[in-house]
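Hi, can you check this record?
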Amino acid sequence: MIIYFLYGLSFFGLGLAAFLRLRQGGEFPLRKQLPWLAAFGFAVGATGWLDMFLVGGAIDPSNFMIKFLILAAHPLSGVLLLRFGWGIFKDLLPLPAWTIFIPGVMIVPIAYIITYAATTFITPSPIEIPIDIWSRYLLYLPGSLLAGVGFLRQWLYQRDLGYNEVSRLMFAAGVAFLFEALVVGFIVPAAPYGPASYYNYDRVVYNAFIGEQLGFLEPFGLNYERVFQVTGVTIEFWRMISAFAVTFFVTRGLDVFDEIQKMRVEILQDERDIAQQLALETQITARETAERWTNALVNINRQIADLDDVDSILKDIAKNARHLLEADFLGIALLEEDQKSLNLKCYSTEEDTELVNMPTLVGNKMIQRVVRNSSYYYSKREESSKFLKDACFFVDESPKTIASVFLNLDNQSIGAMWVARFSDHFYSEEDLIWLECMADQVVIALQHGLMTSQLQSFSVTEERARIAREMHDGLAQVLGYLNLQVQTIEALYVSGKTEILEKELHHMRKAIKTAHADVRENILSLRTTLAHKEGLLSAVEEYLKEFGIQTGVHTFVKIDNDGDLNLSSIAEVQLVCILQEALANVRKHANADNVELVITQQDNGDGEYVQMLVVDNGRGFTREGSNRSFGLQTMQERANSVDGTLHIDSVEGRGTIIACTIPCLETNKYPAKKAVS
């Protein structure tokens, strides 16, 4: 009774462990087979306890329900074990390709065994004996063998993965099921046929309790005590040992599989952390790259806004782009006026970055195609030498990969910009995007260079017109007057009118002095307008000083700023020209002794602005009928051209105040430099 109780308890514990493990969820190799294992454990446990009650006499074996349970117990548990064993054998690991032939090879012997088993059912013996025997042979034995082989295959697999603990448990579980196949599936009750007549177990104790009630006869007088004779213990004891082994190792295997699952989750978490770290590092690298490109573009924009020399801007663009794209060579080429010749204008290598003054034809077919089709190109693999030919200049090595974009001006291709490497590190689409950004800067620099040249030409033309106006209004009129005076003096000399002659000579001398002052003022104005190297404020101070020396007017300068006024170059020129016009009016018309210049930089809430005050203590004037109207109109136009204002306050006998206000770059119409500031 104790053996049957422990046997049933062991398998019931196996079924309960499988059921509870199935309730926990999760993914592991045995999960799909747990329902069959749980059902098998509960069925065998119930069979063991049924045998315990029969041996103890607690239940009546002649009861119909009890007989039915006895007859159904072994086939049911055998079917469940066979299904579990087949699942372990087939699903735990993929079957080798050759196993596809097993059903065909086994169909004949299996059919023979089933036929042989069927004949035993019609032999004159109690039906319980063949049911028990062939349930073990046909169901329990192959089910245990399949489960054992399946666990042994898992043992080899886990050992190759390096999971030594689980591989040992799988090996022990496989051996336990093979032992179960021997003591439960192969050693059967004694019978006069098959292996049962040679390998059987003792049923004397069993028959002593229930043989008479079931009508069992002594089994044909054969040797049915072989297990007991060989081992000294009954078969029930060995089955109990087998049940303990199967339950222990399979249950431990379930726990170890859970640990493996946890290990795999930890590995996945580590891989996720590593992936997140790599993604973070990639983001940091991308951000640093973007910052480097942004800084380079901002610096180039600042140079363009400051109207720096176009040649120096192109060299900086070439050097920065080559460095940021990790290129060994960078070239910038422009189409000539015939729209056919593509000549190299600037290049950059590790050694130097230079402009190309001599005509240097770019003969690379891919670069020419980029310009002709207004497209782009970059190497995606090892290129043929014909695609890389004539792509690099002034270097000895040949490139392995190139990337090129066209220069777009008003939706028209005017040239190309390309980079090349001597290694097999190919360019990507991201590199091409950055190269296009630099190509846009090249076009902007060329546009600003053209605009600067046009502005300079316009300024020169305007300044020439101003000088011509000054000469017409001043020097030309004086020379015409002197010409008439010379004729008058000649006539007076001939007529001998000495007093009148002296008076006319005095007027002539005064006119010559005025013309001389006009010429010196024009020379001073030209020199001050072009004196940008010294800075605007120092040029203005120097101009006021020389103006005072030439005219004898006391000058006072007050500048409330020690640095840059933050005006555009055009605004600075117009401010100087307004100052020159105001001082010219002081010299010609005001008859002043003192002139004060005040320059301040203030903020009115809408933005910063520069205010210039020119104050004299002359005789003043009224706007109507004044001979200063043309000069005042010119000053007004100059202030309006840079979004400034001009206000004139003059009262006869009390002097004049000219107030000019010009907005700084943060609030005026020059957005390029505003973005840099």
